[in-house]
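BUG: 3D viewer hangs when loading the predicted structure for this chain

Environment: internal workstation, default settings.
Expected: structure renders.
Actual: progress bar stalls at 90%.

Input used:
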Amino acid sequence: MKIDRVARTLLAATTVLATTTVLLVGYVVWSQFRGIQLESLTPKQRLALLDQAERVSPPLFRKFLFSGTPGFYHLQPNRAHENVYGATFTTNDLGFRAVPTEPKPADRRRVVVVGDSWTFSPFMREEATFPAQLESFLNRQGPRWQVYNMGMMGWTTANEVSALRTLLPRLKPDAVIICPTPNDVDESFSIWDGRMVTQGFTSRAIFRNSHMTERRWVEAFHSLQETAELLESKGIPVLLYFTANWRGMPAYFANRSDLTVPSVVLPSDYVATRYRLPARVDPGEHATEQGNGLIAAYAHNALIEAGIAEGLEPLPLDHAVEFLGHDYDPGRIEEEFRWALEDIYPSHGPDMIPIDRDYMLRRGIYTVPAEADARKILVKIRLIDSPGLYPLVVELRVDAPEKILETRTFEEFASGEHVVTLTKPHSLDGYDFVDVVIDADRAVVPAGKILPVSMRHPTVEVE
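Structure tokens produced before the viewer hung:
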């Protein structure tokens, strides 16, 4: 079976750590390409295609061992990569698309920029990436600065913080810019340590007005604050730079987490459609070269305004740098939450792990609308008739300040719906959604499937 170079290179990213991981990520990546229609292939053909991809290309990523939990993954170090995520580059000694980590030039101040794919800058030649353009802007008056691109495709806030703290002695930064994007709270690091299939969480990067969304983002902001305090205690200034399209949410969560780190938000018109790659080129619709230039220019001016880059003149931009405070526009936040409830939820539905449209893997996260006076949460479970699956232990949890937990054991397969009733606590009355987490203790691979599943997708209703 012939696979074009781009597809083959991207598929190399799936050959990481475990066969189950390969299957999962391969499915997600392949589904983006017009030339490969997975729906038309049999399970045997899909496995053959994955096997071919694994043989023609070596693993692209690897987990950084012993970095604790949460950990992080990185690219294979000291390797030339051709047309990986549309870019050709050579990784450095730590596996980043950056200059060598050591020795650090004695005559340069090093700014480490840590982030996800927006920092990595896919489909960009090296000089066009946001960190590279930032370095050019900082050195307009002479070579005084080195910008270290510590961006990684798919990283979360947890990955970014873990990597930064783990590698700090090697990096020796003079300043750090941390670049969260709206989907960084996802636990996508689980893909790379083999837990995605059993415990994965892949949100659709939407700020739903739910306890889980708020809790996870407040935790993420706390981790950013703690990391900044650690760095500043060592004399390393930190700038939080909220890139991609955030709208009003950074101020909202800064308020709830008492964030005090100097923070700026990229103006949203700098990532408008005209500054983003079309989906046919880049499924993630990351920034174009011009868009990366605007991201870099605003970062340049923010470093000056924060007093980190002294003796430089700001670049002429149509947006002055504004530092984030704790004040936010309640109407703007309400509008964004309403947009998620009225426009996004009907099309996306309750499934927050959209991997298999018919079956749940070992974990399911379901977010459903709930009126303030609703008190019952009905979870309707439909089992699958598969040898080796039973007895099956299912744990159901409502994400809330209280411990709302129910466990059911199914000794054998039984047809029909099995209804489990959970109580919606009053602490969730101020949210538009409730979040139900369902965990099964085992899974099987039934005929016609390539991933282990535990049951059909449950139905969650609130009344």
